[in-house]
Amino acid sequence: MIVLDGVTVEYSDSVPLERVTLELEPGCTAVMGPSGSGKSTLLRIIAGQQKPTVGAVAIDGVAVAAASWRSSGDPRVALIHQDYRLVPFLTVEQNLLLAAELREVNRSAVDVDDALDRVGLPSAMRSRLPRTMSGGEQQRVAIARALMTGAPVVLADEPTGALDEGNTERITEVLVDLGRKERLVIVVATHDPGVARRMDRCLRLIDGKLAPAG
Ligand SMILES: Nc1ncnc2c1ncn2[C@@H]1O[C@H](COP(=O)(O)OP(=O)(O)OP(=O)(O)O)[C@@H](O)[C@H]1O
Protein backbone atom coordinates (compact mmCIF):
# COMPACT_ATOMS: atom_id res chain seq x y z
CA MET A 1 0.00 0.00 0.00
CA ILE A 2 1.18 3.54 -0.78
CA VAL A 3 0.75 6.12 1.96
CA LEU A 4 1.13 9.86 1.45
CA ASP A 5 1.19 11.73 4.72
CA GLY A 6 0.66 15.49 4.63
CA VAL A 7 2.52 15.95 1.35
CA THR A 8 3.10 19.56 0.30
CA VAL A 9 5.12 20.65 -2.71
CA GLU A 10 5.95 24.32 -2.76
CA TYR A 11 7.76 26.50 -5.29
CA SER A 12 8.46 30.19 -4.92
CA ASP A 13 5.42 31.03 -7.03
CA SER A 14 3.09 28.01 -6.72
CA VAL A 15 1.96 25.20 -4.45
CA PRO A 16 1.13 22.23 -6.73
CA LEU A 17 0.30 19.95 -3.77
CA GLU A 18 -0.97 21.05 -0.39
CA ARG A 19 -1.23 18.71 2.62
CA VAL A 20 -2.23 15.67 0.57
CA THR A 21 -2.86 12.62 2.74
CA LEU A 22 -4.07 9.43 1.09
CA GLU A 23 -3.67 5.67 0.83
CA LEU A 24 -3.50 3.75 -2.42
CA GLU A 25 -4.25 0.01 -2.46
CA PRO A 26 -3.66 -2.57 -5.19
CA GLY A 27 -6.19 -1.99 -7.96
CA CYS A 28 -6.83 1.01 -10.19
CA THR A 29 -7.09 4.60 -9.05
CA ALA A 30 -7.83 7.50 -11.39
CA VAL A 31 -6.58 10.98 -10.53
CA MET A 32 -8.61 13.71 -12.19
CA GLY A 33 -8.48 17.47 -11.93
CA PRO A 34 -8.12 20.56 -14.07
CA SER A 35 -4.88 21.36 -15.86
CA GLY A 36 -2.31 22.54 -13.31
CA SER A 37 -4.12 20.94 -10.35
CA GLY A 38 -1.07 18.84 -9.43
CA LYS A 39 -1.71 15.42 -11.02
CA SER A 40 1.73 15.00 -12.60
CA THR A 41 3.39 16.36 -9.48
CA LEU A 42 1.57 13.74 -7.41
CA LEU A 43 2.83 10.95 -9.70
CA ARG A 44 6.42 12.25 -9.59
CA ILE A 45 6.27 12.37 -5.79
CA ILE A 46 5.05 8.74 -5.59
CA ALA A 47 7.78 7.68 -8.03
CA GLY A 48 10.48 9.36 -5.95
CA GLN A 49 11.38 11.60 -8.87
CA GLN A 50 10.68 14.63 -6.75
CA LYS A 51 10.88 15.19 -2.99
CA PRO A 52 7.99 16.77 -1.11
CA THR A 53 8.76 20.07 0.57
CA VAL A 54 6.88 18.74 3.59
CA GLY A 55 5.43 15.31 4.37
CA ALA A 56 6.32 11.71 3.66
CA VAL A 57 5.61 8.98 1.11
CA ALA A 58 5.99 5.26 1.83
CA ILE A 59 5.27 2.02 0.00
CA ASP A 60 4.51 -0.93 2.25
CA GLY A 61 5.92 0.98 5.20
CA VAL A 62 9.26 1.81 3.53
CA ALA A 63 9.97 5.41 2.53
CA VAL A 64 10.07 6.02 -1.21
CA ALA A 65 13.67 6.26 -2.45
CA ALA A 66 14.61 9.58 -4.00
CA ALA A 67 16.13 9.82 -7.46
CA SER A 68 19.91 9.89 -7.50
CA TRP A 69 22.76 9.72 -10.01
CA ARG A 70 22.13 5.94 -10.13
CA SER A 71 18.37 5.88 -10.48
CA SER A 72 15.42 7.87 -11.71
CA GLY A 73 13.42 7.14 -8.56
CA ASP A 74 12.12 4.30 -6.43
CA PRO A 75 12.64 0.86 -8.07
CA ARG A 76 9.22 -0.27 -6.85
CA VAL A 77 7.55 2.26 -9.14
CA ALA A 78 7.35 2.49 -12.95
CA LEU A 79 6.05 5.63 -14.63
CA ILE A 80 4.38 5.69 -18.07
CA HIS A 81 3.98 8.90 -20.06
CA GLN A 82 1.45 10.14 -22.62
CA ASP A 83 4.17 10.29 -25.30
CA TYR A 84 5.47 6.71 -24.61
CA ARG A 85 9.14 7.80 -24.45
CA LEU A 86 10.43 4.66 -26.16
CA VAL A 87 14.03 4.79 -27.38
CA PRO A 88 13.46 5.37 -31.12
CA PHE A 89 16.52 3.52 -32.46
CA LEU A 90 15.98 0.40 -30.34
CA THR A 91 13.58 -2.42 -31.21
CA VAL A 92 10.68 -3.31 -28.95
CA GLU A 93 12.74 -6.13 -27.44
CA GLN A 94 15.77 -3.88 -26.89
CA ASN A 95 13.57 -1.22 -25.26
CA LEU A 96 12.20 -3.82 -22.85
CA LEU A 97 15.58 -5.38 -22.07
CA LEU A 98 17.11 -1.95 -21.46
CA ALA A 99 14.44 -1.21 -18.84
CA ALA A 100 15.18 -4.51 -17.07
CA GLU A 101 18.91 -3.84 -17.18
CA LEU A 102 18.63 -0.30 -15.84
CA ARG A 103 16.57 -1.60 -12.92
CA GLU A 104 19.02 -4.49 -12.43
CA VAL A 105 16.24 -7.07 -12.70
CA ASN A 106 17.41 -10.64 -12.06
CA ARG A 107 18.03 -12.34 -15.44
CA SER A 108 15.80 -15.27 -14.51
CA ALA A 109 12.86 -12.85 -14.17
CA VAL A 110 13.38 -11.23 -17.58
CA ASP A 111 10.74 -12.43 -20.04
CA VAL A 112 10.02 -10.20 -23.06
CA ASP A 113 7.31 -12.46 -24.51
CA ASP A 114 5.47 -12.56 -21.19
CA ALA A 115 5.52 -8.75 -20.86
CA LEU A 116 4.22 -8.37 -24.44
CA ASP A 117 1.55 -10.99 -23.84
CA ARG A 118 0.32 -9.19 -20.72
CA VAL A 119 -0.36 -6.06 -22.79
CA GLY A 120 -1.90 -8.00 -25.68
CA LEU A 121 0.94 -7.69 -28.21
CA PRO A 122 2.22 -10.66 -30.24
CA SER A 123 5.84 -11.69 -29.73
CA ALA A 124 6.36 -11.12 -33.48
CA MET A 125 6.50 -7.42 -32.57
CA ARG A 126 9.77 -7.92 -30.69
CA SER A 127 11.87 -6.85 -33.65
CA ARG A 128 9.84 -3.78 -34.66
CA LEU A 129 11.09 -0.22 -34.24
CA PRO A 130 8.72 2.19 -32.44
CA ARG A 131 8.18 4.32 -35.58
CA THR A 132 6.67 1.32 -37.38
CA MET A 133 3.93 0.98 -34.76
CA SER A 134 0.68 2.86 -34.09
CA GLY A 135 0.35 5.13 -31.06
CA GLY A 136 -1.77 2.53 -29.26
CA GLU A 137 0.80 -0.19 -29.93
CA GLN A 138 3.63 2.06 -28.74
CA GLN A 139 1.73 2.80 -25.55
CA ARG A 140 1.28 -0.93 -24.97
CA VAL A 141 5.04 -1.37 -25.41
CA ALA A 142 5.55 1.42 -22.86
CA ILE A 143 3.33 -0.49 -20.41
CA ALA A 144 5.20 -3.74 -21.17
CA ARG A 145 8.45 -1.89 -20.47
CA ALA A 146 7.05 -0.84 -17.08
CA LEU A 147 6.14 -4.48 -16.38
CA MET A 148 9.70 -5.59 -17.25
CA THR A 149 10.96 -3.75 -14.18
CA GLY A 150 8.85 -5.98 -11.93
CA ALA A 151 7.59 -2.86 -10.14
CA PRO A 152 4.42 -3.49 -8.13
CA VAL A 153 3.36 0.13 -8.64
CA VAL A 154 2.62 1.43 -12.15
CA LEU A 155 1.80 5.11 -12.62
CA ALA A 156 0.45 6.41 -15.91
CA ASP A 157 0.39 10.14 -16.72
CA GLU A 158 -2.34 10.75 -19.31
CA PRO A 159 -1.64 7.38 -20.99
CA THR A 160 -4.50 7.81 -23.46
CA GLY A 161 -4.15 11.55 -24.04
CA ALA A 162 -2.81 11.08 -27.58
CA LEU A 163 -4.96 8.11 -28.58
CA ASP A 164 -8.23 7.62 -30.44
CA GLU A 165 -11.30 6.07 -28.84
CA GLY A 166 -10.50 2.45 -29.76
CA ASN A 167 -6.94 2.61 -28.50
CA THR A 168 -8.04 4.48 -25.38
CA GLU A 169 -10.39 1.59 -24.67
CA ARG A 170 -7.64 -1.02 -25.24
CA ILE A 171 -5.05 0.75 -23.06
CA THR A 172 -7.62 1.28 -20.30
CA GLU A 173 -8.50 -2.42 -20.44
CA VAL A 174 -4.82 -3.40 -20.08
CA LEU A 175 -4.36 -1.12 -17.05
CA VAL A 176 -7.61 -2.29 -15.43
CA ASP A 177 -6.56 -5.94 -15.87
CA LEU A 178 -3.16 -5.28 -14.31
CA GLY A 179 -4.88 -3.75 -11.30
CA ARG A 180 -7.70 -6.25 -10.91
CA LYS A 181 -6.14 -9.53 -12.01
CA GLU A 182 -2.48 -9.00 -11.12
CA ARG A 183 -3.16 -6.78 -8.09
CA LEU A 184 -0.64 -4.12 -9.07
CA VAL A 185 -1.16 -0.63 -7.71
CA ILE A 186 -2.19 1.31 -10.81
CA VAL A 187 -2.57 5.09 -10.65
CA VAL A 188 -3.75 6.89 -13.78
CA ALA A 189 -3.79 10.68 -14.15
CA THR A 190 -6.43 11.46 -16.75
CA HIS A 191 -8.72 14.14 -18.13
CA ASP A 192 -10.98 11.48 -19.64
CA PRO A 193 -14.07 10.75 -17.51
CA GLY A 194 -14.61 7.54 -19.52
CA VAL A 195 -11.19 6.24 -18.45
CA ALA A 196 -11.78 7.31 -14.84
CA ARG A 197 -15.12 5.47 -14.72
CA ARG A 198 -13.38 2.20 -15.54
CA MET A 199 -11.07 2.49 -12.52
CA ASP A 200 -11.94 1.15 -9.04
CA ARG A 201 -11.63 4.56 -7.49
CA CYS A 202 -11.33 8.20 -8.55
CA LEU A 203 -9.50 10.98 -6.70
CA ARG A 204 -9.92 14.63 -7.57
CA LEU A 205 -7.29 17.30 -7.18
CA ILE A 206 -8.32 20.93 -7.14
CA ASP A 207 -5.56 23.54 -6.82
CA GLY A 208 -3.26 20.94 -5.27
CA LYS A 209 -5.75 19.81 -2.67
CA LEU A 210 -7.59 16.52 -2.56
CA ALA A 211 -11.31 17.08 -3.02
CA PRO A 212 -13.55 15.23 -0.58
CA ALA A 213 -14.73 11.86 -1.92
CA GLY A 214 -18.22 11.55 -3.40
N1 LIG B 1 9.39 23.07 -11.43
C1 LIG B 1 8.33 23.85 -11.23
N2 LIG B 1 8.47 25.13 -10.82
C2 LIG B 1 7.40 25.92 -10.57
N3 LIG B 1 6.11 25.51 -10.72
C3 LIG B 1 5.91 24.25 -11.11
C4 LIG B 1 6.99 23.35 -11.40
N4 LIG B 1 6.46 22.14 -11.76
C5 LIG B 1 5.12 22.30 -11.73
N5 LIG B 1 4.79 23.56 -11.34
C6 LIG B 1 3.45 24.10 -11.21
O1 LIG B 1 2.68 23.20 -10.43
C7 LIG B 1 1.34 23.19 -10.86
C8 LIG B 1 0.87 21.75 -11.07
O2 LIG B 1 1.53 21.18 -12.21
P1 LIG B 1 1.22 19.69 -12.68
O3 LIG B 1 2.04 19.46 -13.91
O4 LIG B 1 1.41 18.77 -11.55
O5 LIG B 1 -0.33 19.78 -13.05
P2 LIG B 1 -1.26 18.75 -13.82
O6 LIG B 1 -2.52 18.63 -13.03
O7 LIG B 1 -0.52 17.49 -14.11
O8 LIG B 1 -1.56 19.51 -15.19
P3 LIG B 1 -1.92 18.92 -16.65
O9 LIG B 1 -3.27 18.28 -16.54
O10 LIG B 1 -1.94 20.15 -17.51
O11 LIG B 1 -0.81 17.97 -17.02
C9 LIG B 1 1.27 24.05 -12.12
O12 LIG B 1 0.76 25.31 -11.77
C10 LIG B 1 2.72 24.16 -12.54
O13 LIG B 1 2.99 25.39 -13.19
UniProtKB/TrEMBL annotation:
The keyword ATP-binding appears for this protein: yes
GO MF assignments: ATP binding; ATP hydrolysis activity; transmembrane transporter activity
InterPro entries documented for this protein: AAA+_ATPase, ABC_transporter-like_ATP-bd, ABC_transporter-like_CS, ABC_transpr_LolD-like, P-loop_NTPase
Keywords carried by this UniProt record: ATP-binding, Nucleotide-binding
Highest taxon of source: Bacteria
Residue ranges annotated for the ABC transporter domain, each copy included: 2-214
Entry's Gene Ontology cellular component terms: plasma membrane
Name of protein: ABC transporter ATP-binding protein
Species name: Kribbella antibiotica
